[in-house]
Structures are given as structure tokens and as C-alpha cells.
Specification:
288 residues; alpha+beta; D-amino Acid Aminotransferase, Chain A, domain 1; 29% helix
Length: 288
């Protein structure tokens, strides 16, 4: 943990010394929300977009967020300055706070706020050039009625297990279906594909997180006059694709060359979107 720096409720603490209570509801019940951000050339990327999503998630699970966005972004920069690297990984976690062992959220104390930071470990250039592989997971996303809306919480076991299985089997990621055998997302990324020039991605209603990079891709595709279809799709639809890619904050657009046993080329339209989204993304930094 030597390379990880931590701000615990605003106090800079060595990672191995950082502690929260055994009775924090984030630990006891997974009642926490989080966001993963990055810096680009020393500037926080899409900070306002990430914090908007965190506030939405927190509201859905009943966690108060009493801090202004500007206050939180200042904390990110405080940690980035300490790390002293222009390319950083930042993880903000807010827990429900300390409460009784039995589940009574209304009796919880003030929420705990933890900001983790380290140098961003970039994926190898070769994977952007040749693409990565996705295992078709046998884990199913829970029906949307069992989800607390489109939220990003610390209760992440349903994603950890399929990702562990995929990595153990030599795949980069796991592609998850829902109970209707519809494509949803990967465990830590959204999925897109291109077929006959049209861009496809699953609807949020299928059980998909509203990814920040996903939104940037959709916005850029429209600016590029691409035909975009958001809907409910199956593996049969995906297998007809000409190109496939996944998106996340730390990976941007990452081409996919293998889904299950089906191979795909790293195509020109994916490359064009990669370049356009990166260029547009530079306008989404929160400069100081």
C-alpha cells in the first residue's frame, strides 16, 4: 500500500494508519457510495459529472452528502499535489457513518469521507491496439426491481465474483446478462458495438450503470452524425457486430477483440471515437 495516499475526513493519513469504526455501516452493511475519477495532465477529469452521479446514488440509499462539490474537488487536488504526478487515480468513498449493530440508519452519526489516490496505472498500449477479451459470465444481474435505481454503491459482490472468475480464466473482463438474457454491462465498464455504421449500447433499464464515459461517447457519436440505438439486446445482436468496445473512466474507450469465442477486429470507427472522445474529454477537466 506504499503507493496509496489517503485523506480520511480531510486529514492526510498514511494508508496503513487509516482506520474507521467496526460499526461503520459501510463496513457492516455495504451502505456506502463511491466514484472513481482520474486526473489528466494534473487536472481532475469530469469531476462535476462524477459528483452529480454520487449525489444521485447517495440520495437513493439515504446517505447525506453535506459537502459542496468545490470542497470535494479541492480535496482531490490536495491529494494529487501530495502524490506529485499529473496522472492519478482517485477514489472517493462516502459511508453512512457509525450506527448500532442492528440496522437503524437513522441513528447513524455523520458520514465518513475517504479519498484514496495513487498514480494511475495505464493499460498497456498493446491492448488498445489489439483489443481485449470478455468472458460471457454465468452470473446474472439482478432484475431492476431489486436494484436501488442506477446507483454506484460499495455493495459490489455481484460484480466482484464474475470479474474474479473472468480474470482467473485469462479474460480481461466479464460481460453480464440479466435475468431476461439481455446484455447489460461488464463488471467495471459499459459496452458498445458498431454494426453497419450504427452504434449500439444497452439501455439503462436493462440494469446498466450510467457511466460518465458512456455519456461522453453517446454525446460525441451524435456530434459525429453517427446513428445511435439504445435498447434491449441479446448476444445474438452482439454477435452481428463489426466492432466492439468497452468504456470506463480509467480506460476511456478500450477495443474488444474477443467475446466468448467470437472474434472482432479493432475497427476504424472505434479508433475515430477513441480520438474524438479523448479530445472532447480534455474540455471536461475541473481546472483550478
Amino acid at each position: 500500500m506504499d503507493d496509496i495516499k489517503v485523506l480520511l475526513n480531510g486529514e492526510l493519513i498514511e494508508a496503513e494508519q487509516a482506520k474507521i469504526s467496526l460499526f461503520d455501516y459501510g463496513f457492516l452493511f455495504g451502505t456506502s457510495v463511491y466514484e472513481v475519477l482520474k486526473t489528466v495532465n494534473g487536472e481532475v477529469f469530469a469531476g462535476e459529472l462524477h459528483l452529480k452521479r454520487m449525489r444521485y446514488s447517495a440520495e437513493k440509499v439515504g446517505i447525506p452528502i453535506p459537502w459542496e462539490n468545490s470542497f470535494l474537488i479541492d480535496e482531490f487536488y490536495k491529494l494529487v499535489k501530495y502524490i506529485d504526478n499529473p496522472s492519478c487515480y482517485i477514489r472517493l468513498v462516502v459511508t453512512r457513518g457509525v450506527g448500532p449493530l442492528t440496522f437503524h440508519p437513522s441513528e447513524c452519526t455523520f458520514p465518513n469521507r475517504i479519498v484514496y489516490g495513487r498514480v494511475l496505472h495505464r493499460i498497456a498500449d498493446e491492448e488498445y491496439e489489439k483489443g481485449v477479451s470478455l468472458m460471457i459470465s454465468d452470473y446474472r444481474k439482478a432484475p431492476s426491481r431489486h436494484r436501488t435505481g442506477n446507483v454506484k454503491t460499495g455493495n459490489f459482490l455481484g460484480h466482484v465474483l464474475p470479474l474474479h472468475k473472468a480474470r482467473s480464466s485469462g479474460y480481461h473482463e466479464a460481460l453480464m446478462l440479466n435475468h431476461r438474457d439481455e446484455i447489460t454491462e461488464c463488471t467495471t465498464a459499459n459496452i458498445f458495438w458498431i454494426s453497419k455504421g450504427r452504434l449500439y449500447t444497452p439501455t439503462l433499464r436493462a440494469g446498466v450503470l450510467k457511466g460518465v464515459t458512456r455519456e461522453l461517447v453517446l454525446s460525441m457519436a451524435k456530434k459525429m452524425k453517427m446513428d445511435v440505438l439504445i435498447g434491449r439486446f441479446t448476444l445474438e445482436d452482439l454477435n452481428r457486430a463489426d466492432e466492439v468496445f468497452i468504456t470506463s473512466t480509467t480506460r476511456d474507450i478500450l477495443p474488444v477483440s474477443l467475446v466468448g469465442d467470437k472474434r472482432f477486429p479493432v475497427g476504424e470507427k472505434t479508433k475515430a471515437l477513441m480520438a474524438a472522445v479523448f479530445k472532447q474529454g480534455m474540455k471536461n477537466v475541473n481546472s483550478r
